[in-house]
Amino acid sequence: MTTEVKVPDIGDFKDVPVVTVLVSVGDTIAVEDAIIELESDKATMEVPSSHAGVVKEIKVAEGDKVSEGSVVLVIDAADTGDAPKEEPKAEAPKQEAPKEAPKAAPAPVMDAGFSKVHASPSVRAFARRVEVDLNTINGSGRKGRILREDVEKALKTVAAPASGGTVQGGMGIPPIPAVDFSKFGPIEDVEMPRIKKISGPALHRSWLNIPHVTHNDEADITELDQYRKEMDTQAKQDGYRVTLLSFVIKASVSALKQHWEVNSSIHPDGEKLIRKGYYNIGFAADTPNGLVVPVIKDADRKGLVEISKDLMELSSAAREGSLKSKDMQGATFTISSLGGIGGTSFTPIVNAPEVAILGLTRSKMAPVWNGSEFEPRLMQPLSLSYDHRAIDGALAARFCVTLKTLLGDMRKLMW
C-alpha cells in the first residue's frame, strides 16, 4: 500500500525552503524519522515522517519551497508492521532563534542573480551582507552546496577598495572591510553555533529598522525577595524553584494591562497600532549553544506557582534542545535577565514585531533615603528598550514607574 507523507503543522511558517533531503529512494524509514530539513530566517527544523515504510518516490528537491500539507514522499507501507500515526508536529532544532519579524520592509535577502545558486537562505543573506557574489563560488558542501565557510574563504580573496573610494553596504552603510588577520599572528576559524548564525541577521535587521531607546530605572525589591525566598524554600520540596523572574513576569503583565501600547505591535501600514488582548511573555534562556526565547502563554491567567513551573520546564527544554517551534512563538513582550551573571544596566534589542523588551541585571544592596535616614535596601536595576515609533519617553517612564511600584509592594501584585 502506497502512502503520501506530507509536511505536518510547522507553525506560522509558509513557503519554507528545503535545505536538505535526508532520505533516498529505497530507504526504509520509521515513524518520526527525519526526512527533510527546512530553514527560514527564523528557524531551522527537521520534518519527521508520519508513516513507516520504504521510500518509493521523493516529491521535493533541495531548494524547493514547502508549506503545511505539501507532499514530501511516497512510501510503500506494506513492507512494515508499523501502523501510521497521527502526523507529528515538526520540532524546532536544538538551536533556535528568538522569533522576530521586521515592521518595515528590509532590503531583499536574496539578489535576483542568486536565484539558481545552491545555498541556504542564511548563507545567501550572509553573502549579500558582505557583498560576495555567490555565482563566483564553487560550493564545498553536499552536491556542490555553498557553505558559509566558502563565502568566508572568498572574502579573503577580495581586494580592499582603493584609497578614497566609497563602497556602500546595505541601507547606504559602508561595509566593514575584510582583514587578513593571519598577517599579524596565528589565528583559528571557530564555527559559530547555528543559533547565532540564524539569529544574527534577525537581530541586525531589528536594530537597523527600529529606532531604539533604552530607559533605565530601579525597583526596591527588599520585601519581595524575602517573600520569594520563603516561597522557594517550599517549592524546593515540591520539585521546582521560585526565582525573581516569576515575580517580574507577574508584575509586567499588570503593567502591560495599564499601558497597553507596550504590549502592542505596529500595523504593517505604519499608521496604526495593533492592540492585543492577550499576554504572552517571552524570556531569554541561556543554553550551551546560545540564547533562545521560550514563551509563557497566557501569563495573565497564571499565578506565581504556575509561572514558576512553566519557567523551569521551558528552561530545561531549552538547555536540552527539545523546544518546539510553538514554544517560541506568539510573544507580546520579552524579558532578558542577566541577574545571575552581573552588570548594572544594558541595552537589550527589541524582539520585533514586539515594541519593547525589559532587561534585568543583578540586584544590589544600596543606601536609600527614607525621609529621615539612609537604610539598606535591595535594589533591582531595570532597562527597558522600546520602539520610539510606538512608545515615547514619557510612556516608557510611566511603564517603569508602574512596574517598580508593583515590585515594591507585594500586596499590589496580588490584585
Describe this structure in words.
The chain is α+β, with helices and mostly antiparallel strands and 415 residues long. It is built from eight helices and 19 strands. The strands form five sheets. Strands 9, 12, 15, 16, 17, 18 and 19 form a seven-stranded mixed beta sheet that branches. Helix 5 crosses helix 6 and helix 5 packs across helix 7 (393-408). The protein starts with a strand and ends with a helix. Mean pLDDT is 83; it is low at 80-102, 104-115 and 159-169.
CATH architectural label of the largest domain: 2-Layer Sandwich
The H-and-E topology, N to C, reads as EEEEEEEEHHHEHHEEEEEEHEEEEHH
Q: Radius of gyration, rounded?
A: 25 Å
**Overall average residue pLDDT:** 83
